[in-house]
Amino acid sequence: MFAEFLRRLTEPGPAPLPDTDARLALTALLVRVARADETYDTAESSRIDRIVAARYALSPFEAAKLRSDAEALEAEAPDTVRFTRSIKDAVSYDERIGVIEALWQVVLADGVREAEEDALLRLVTNLLGISDMDSALARKRVEAAR
Fold first, then answer.
1. Torsion 37-40-43-48 (CA) sign
2. Fewer Cβ atoms within 10 A, N terminus or C terminus of the chain?
């Protein structure tokens, strides 16, 4: 279903993604982090819906549809390293900082920081070219908003 999209995303030197494709790729990354601890529950999927609804001004129905498409894309996406590096090359730095904040929202959605989620978030932060300091600041913003 997403073969052509993934091919374009993972080819060397991908072009910047159109807005709708960037939304899908970034939401798939949220799903991947939520699934990192082998438990993908309603709290996490609902959090993803709220994040994308607020971030992209979507209705609840549109947010759920985007998440559903992202779940399918995430299942077909290559390994996290290639997938995340591809997003880095195709999405602006400011957008990637926002993604790190959204990833922290997902990790903290169930109230438990699992070691698998932390490890994957550290990897993704690095692969997206975001400093540990910026990631820590994003986490603190999320914790303060809770």
1. positive
2. C
Instruction: Locate all alpha helices (DSSP H) within the chain, ordered by sequence.
Output: 3-10, 19-34, 42-56, 60-76, 80-90, 93-107, 115-127, 132-145
pLDDT tens-digit profile of 90-134? 778 888 888 899 888 888 877 777 788 888 889 999 989 999 899
Distances (CA, A) of 87 to 111, 119, 142: 27, 19, 22
Selected from 1.10.3680.10, 3.40.30.110, 3.40.50.300, 1.10.3720.10, the CATH number assigned to the domain covering 18-145 reads 1.10.3680.10
Give 69: exposed, middle or buried? Use CB within 10 Å, 0-12, 13-18, 19+. middle
- Domain spans of the chain, in order of start: 18-145
Are residues 72 and 2 in contact, defined by beta-carbon separation less than 8 angstroms? yes
119: DSSP letter: H
The model carries a pTM of: 0.80
80-90: pLDDT as tens digits:
877 787 778 77
